[in-house]
Amino acid sequence: xxxxxxxxxxxxxxxxxxxxxxxxxxxxxxxxxxxxxxxxxxxxxxxxxxxxxxxxxxxxxxxxxxxxxxxxxxxxxxxxxxxxxxxxxxxxxxxxxxxxxxxxxxxxxxxxxxxxxxxxxxxxxxxxxxxxxxxxxxxxxxxxxxxxxxxxxxxxxxxxxxxxxxxxxxxxxxxxxxxxxxxxxxxxxxxxxxxxxxxxxxxxxxxxxxxxxxxxxxxxxxxxxxxxxxxxxxxxxxxxxxxxxxxxxxxxxxxxxxxxxxxxxxxxxxxxxxxxxxxxxxxxxxxxxxxxxxxxxxxxxxxxxxxxxxxxxxxxxxxxxxxxxxxxxxxxxxxxxxxxxxxxxxxxxxxxxxxxxxxxxxxxxxxxxxxxxxxxxxxxxxxxxxxxxxxxxxxxxxxxxxxxxxxxxxxxxxxxxxxxxxxxxxxxxxxxxxxxxxxxxxxxxxxxxxxxxxxxxxxxxxxxxxxxxxxxxxxxxxxxxxxxxxxxxxxxxxxxxxxxxxxxxxxxxxxxxxxxxxxxxxxxxxxxxxxxxxxxxxxxxxxxxxxxxxxxxxxxxxxxxxxxxxxxxxxxxxxxxxxxxxxxxxxxxxxxxxxxxxxxxxxxxxxxxxxxxxxxxxxxxxxxxxxxxx
Length: 630
Prior knowledge:
It is a multi-pass membrane protein. The chain is mainly alpha-helical. It is 57% helix and 4% strand.
């Protein structure tokens, strides 16, 4: 494992105090989780002191890269491995038992006390590999954690339930199932992933722990969170508001924002239970066991697949409205043909372009407002609003609004990674406030403006109304179509990466992890005979990327209704992933230590949202004619 040591940092590292806590931390502080956050913040400050500006454009892209790998389903876990003196002895020739023995030795307290926690920094920029029988999860969890026995005496972890504690210990053990030559089996480095930094610290009791050093600043955290929440779901909000009416729709939108903001906060609280937790799937594991982790990962795949299908449908519908003649079917095929080469673009370049997603969605909202102000008469005018209603005109269509109004809030699968990568985790609450206020105001503006402009004639996507209505400047319509065309080109390849990795895993291939380099003077480990043929690996990977786009395009052709797709995603997946499961994790992990009034609220939230999810999902598959929709 290569050790990251900037020459400008080495002096400051070696001169740092060798005490078990940084100098600026009060000695009376006894909360391990607070200490861990302070350690991470101080290490991050040291690491970035001699580097480029923290909020540079490149660092924004790197931060988004680290957050973009959230939902991969793969039968392994690429993890951080601590680079220690003597690592050269831990080579491909060791057996799994010997490897586990080394890991146990390294995670135990160091009786010699020869390694101060803030002496020479072990910043880890490379990955090892975990390939365990039970290990089905995401790719960014640290391997080495503090021994569980001493850590559960802390303020937070002592409050968790016994089952969560047992599952967490099992997760820790599973992370130690390393096949030592797996890293050597890969000939090349996975350059697409932006690694986390990991630092080993030593506690007062002598135990050691590998913690993730957060690198993302508050602006980067807000950007990542907004980038997750702002998407095409807001284009169907006017339709959802029309189905529900003012008196039901606006409170439902407020409820969706408040409930998802609350669950995003308690997810971070659950993450603080143990430092080895990084992903949403890890929380599922320690809450309900290994099967829950698999189910959660499959839900992620369904959510990503549905989002990609909706993007293709939106692309085809919008361009067909502006340039009629070819038909939506042909435009979907054209979109698929464009997305195939985009699926081979390096993730780093896609991450750089991800800022266009926020820009495009925000610009579409602004253009719709401008169009509404410019046009003097109805339909499509804010100066002459269309007919609206306080209550639903068709009560049988109200359940469709559940999913349509919930669909823009699907970001909780990424929030644990975003929180873990924060340079100052105590500012996570502030980041959430800014994120949700901005997102809510944008969604509210879109929903209200769209319904006021078109009333009962609002379509699946509000942009289709704009493009099919005369009286707007042509150049604004062209801008809308251009922005809509850009969104799939930037978001679909990003969303496809976890799906592609899943397909590669099912085919028996893993994306090549970084090889373990102990010393630059020593040759890199060579692949063993059982390694997949490089040409075969390339063929299978290319085929998986092409087939993924083909499947998405096929589903978009078979299910062409944008509103039904968004209603299904919102009701079945967003409500489940963003509200039901986080609350269930929280209740399971903390149990009776949660205040009584909060437990009551949580159980009510579970009951209400479960009902909404079931009813909304069922309504998404009922034919339009059966519920009185033309």
